[in-house]
Amino acid sequence: MKKLGEITSDEIIKIVREKFEEIPEHRAKNIVIPLADALMSAFGMFSLKDTSLLAFDKRREEGDENLSQIYLVKKQPSDSQMRTIIDEVEPKHIRPTFKEIVKEVRRVGILTEYHYMGGYYLLALDGTGHFSSKKINCGGCLEKRNSKTGEVTYHHQILGAAIVHPDKKEVIPLYPEPIMKQDGIEKNDCELNAVKRFCKGLREDYPYMPFIICEDGLYPNAPHIRMLKKYHLSFIIRVKEENHSYLFNYVKKEAEKKETSWYKYEQDGVEYKFHYINKVPLNESNQDVKVNFLEYWQTQKGEVKYFTWVTDIELSEATLYAIMRGGRARWKIENETFNTLKNQGYNYEHNYGHGKNHLAVNFASLMMLAFLVDQVQQLSNSLFQQALKTIGSRKLLWERIRALFYVLSFEAMDDILRALVYGFQVKDVIINDEVALKDVIIGNAPL
Ligand SMILES: [Zn+2]
Asked: pTM of the predicted model, to two decimals?
């Protein structure tokens, strides 16, 4: 039975379907496969972590009941139909589905677990590549030209974003902003422009949510900080001396004048040392952009870890520890997000197809959407949690879900999870050409 604050797998799949149905149809006529069916088929593919479109195609020909019962695909497209349709979908149309899921996560109360420093949300940002080729390319590809040989490499990147918390393993990814060539702009797009578009979209989707943006050393320049302030976004950004010599020298001089503060304590064999000053100029040419500067050493068994950040949150003995932990939580976008997609069965680097326009970009977003759905399951669906615990690893869990999905007929994803948790019996395994495995009895949940 569903518990309070839970979102079941099937509820979340229904939300995805409903949002896909709202995406405007780009085709004027000869519509054989509805747009939502093409998108749900792709979502199903990423949700099942199925690397082979061909296998997907084969199942379609055999009539896949589970695809319609679980992933709500009413009219199943072929592999090539799915790619052709999704290639033409404007990437921004995928964004509202992320927003709706986050809204649901908030509605059932899960998002409060991510409150940080009195109601803020830590939002970690980072760019990552998801495609590179010397031959295959599309209208949205970024181009890198080798200065010696003139050879061009085509590639795609996204700006990933995820709500994180230092104490939580799960992350809540938001719509990843594609870093790609924009219409009418010849010059390659860059990550900073993508951050601008991302922040604009973030405020459109979540106008009142108090975010603290956590970023790596790439972004701390004055226009970027002005842009964050414009959108009422707080920040904790890592800085390095080699890129900010003016700032570091300024702090050194203030330290000599005893204008900076130090705070140190020891706990359980770990020494925490903070050096900080509020309201210092970020660089020489932008004296009006003031930041708070934090330098931090953590020593344990002779090993020293060292970090430096700038933030707009006032540094004091009351906030130092939380800001340090918030700054360090940024790595979750790499470790819990990109590395999970790469190494936990999502086949992030597998080329699912490139297309001429938006296919590569849309597939990257749909994969992130499948990851969001899985993370929400891990956070809020007790059946999913039990299945994961019983089976032991996510990679193995996907394998077991796929195995059942392909062989037996189920009415809902939660039934597959129940079968994995409580066990199941298959009646009448008759091996011949005419009778398929159909009847399943799902073990009853213990009272
Ligand atoms: Zn491309």
From this structure: 0.91
